[in-house]
Design brief:
240 residues, alpha/beta, Rossmann fold, seven-stranded parallel sheet, 15% strand
Length: 240
Amino acid sequence: MAIVTGRPLANQLALVTGASRGIGAATAIALGAAGAHVILTARSAGALEEVEEAIHQAGGSATIAPLDLTESDSIGRLATAAAERWSGLDLLVLNAATLGSLAPVPAIDAKELAAVLTLNVSAQAALIAAFDPLLRAASAGKVIGITSSVGRKPRAYWGAYGASKAAFETLLLAYGDELAEISRVRTAIVDPGATRTRMRARAFPGEDPQSVKPPEAVAARIVALATDGFEPGHFERVEA
C-alpha cells in the first residue's frame, strides 16, 4: 500500500460526502493531514464537528456543510457557496450512500428502492452537475466514487443496492469519458472491499469487525490517488 508523507495536497480543496463516519470520515481526516482544505458534508452537524476537530488536531483545516443530499436545493446551494469562496475544486469524493434492505428482488419495496436510487444515483448526478464548473476550473480536478463489488457482480438479496452502484459507476465513468479529451478532469472508481463500517456491520451482523480492515486503509488509497493522479476511468479494489 502506498504511504503518503508530508503535505502533498497543500493549497488544494477537497469535498467529501458522507464525511461524518466510516470511510468518509477517515478519508476527510487523511486528506486534511495531507494538506487539503476539506469541505465535509453529511446530515449530522454534530458528527461533522467531531471530524472537523480531528482534522484541526492533525494540523489541517476544514469547513463543515451539514445537509441532506436528497433535498432538491441543498446541493445547488452548497456549490454556489463554494464557488463564492474558492476558484476551483481539486477533488470530489462521492462516498455518501445508503444500503436499504437486503431482500429478494420480488420482495423489494418500491418506495425504499426509490429512496436508495435517489441518494445513490440521482444525488450523485446532481453533485457532478453542480460541481462540474469548479472541477474544470481546477488545474487537475479529480472525482473518486466509492462503489461496491455487488455493482459489478450481482449477489442474491443485494439487488437494490447493487443496481444503484452499477448505475452510479456508469454515470461517473460516462462523465469522465465525456471530459477525457477536453479537460484535465479525471474520474476513478474505488471498491473498498470488506471494511469496518456501520453499513458493513448492518449487512453482516454476525461478523467480527476486527476481521476486516479499518476505513483508514481505504482513506490511504484515496489520498494516494489524489496525490499521484490516475488514468481516465481508473478502477481499483482495496484489499486488506
